[in-house]
Amino acid sequence: MEEERLRQIPVFARLSKKQRKLVAQTADEIDIRPGTQLCREGESAYEFFAILEGTAKVVRGDQYLNDLGPGEFFGEMGLLSKSPRNASVIAQTPMTAVVMTGPAFRHIAREMPEVAKRLRSAIEERRHWLEPVG
Ligand code: CMP
């Protein structure tokens, strides 16, 4: 995909152009129809997604957790902890997203501390909402 497009996504925006080119080489830009289930709670994790356009809804069981829009990402939790998907993520509108395979994503998270830091803080915040109440 185009390196320039990754500048729209904060997790990659602060990288050098050279680093963004490396990310772009391992990523694809895809169009997604509304209603598509991109992550399925309880299933194995194979991809990481970042949103260029459109919105997705995050649900766990029958609980609504969040909406995700342009610039935001998802799918990092299952890939980095090698655990099943913590929630389901469903496209709410037509979407354009950046998608990366697990090995490519883990490689980037290992090699680019700036990216790893942003991923860690998102995971910390999202974990908080996944903890059972009481
Ligand atoms: P993963 O567990 O791989 O698959 C489901 C994804 O939903 C998860 O990674 C996060 O990226 C995302 N997610 C989980 N909880 C939240 C939340 N509270 N807000 C936003 N995104 C979330």
Provide a descriptive summary of the structure in words:
It is built from 5 helices and 8 strands, in the order H-H-E-E-E-E-E-E-H-E-E-H-H. The chain is an alpha+beta fold and 134 residues long. It has a 4-stranded antiparallel beta sheet. A 4-stranded antiparallel beta sheet has the order 2-7-4-5, with no helix packed on it. The mean pLDDT is 96.
Helix-strand makeup class: alpha+beta
The hetero molecules present are: adenosine-3',5'-cyclic-monophosphate
Total count of helical runs of at least 4 residues: 5
Largest sheet composition: 4 strands, antiparallel
- Fraction of helical residues: 25-40%
What's this model, at a glance?
The protein has helices spanning about 10-15, 15-25, 75-80, 100-110, 115-130, and strands at about 25-30, 35-40, 45-55, 55-60, 65-70, 75, 90, 95-100. It is an alpha+beta fold.
Jot down its keywords:
134 residues; alpha+beta; 4-stranded antiparallel β-sheet; 5 helices; 36% helix; 30% strand; globular; binds adenosine-3',5'-cyclic-monophosphate
Secondary-structure blueprint of this entry?
Blueprint: H1 10-13, H2 17-26, E1 27-32, E2 37-39, E3 47-53, E4 56-60, E5 63-68, E6 73-74, H3 76-81, E7 88-91, E8 95-101, H4 102-111, H5 113-130
Antiparallel strand pairs: 1-8, 2-7, 3-6, 3-8, 4-5, 4-7
Helix pairs in contact: 4-5
Bound molecules: adenosine-3',5'-cyclic-monophosphate.
Adenosine-3',5'-cyclic-monophosphate is lined by residues 39, 45, 58, 65-66, 68, 74-78, 85-87, 89, 126, 129-130.
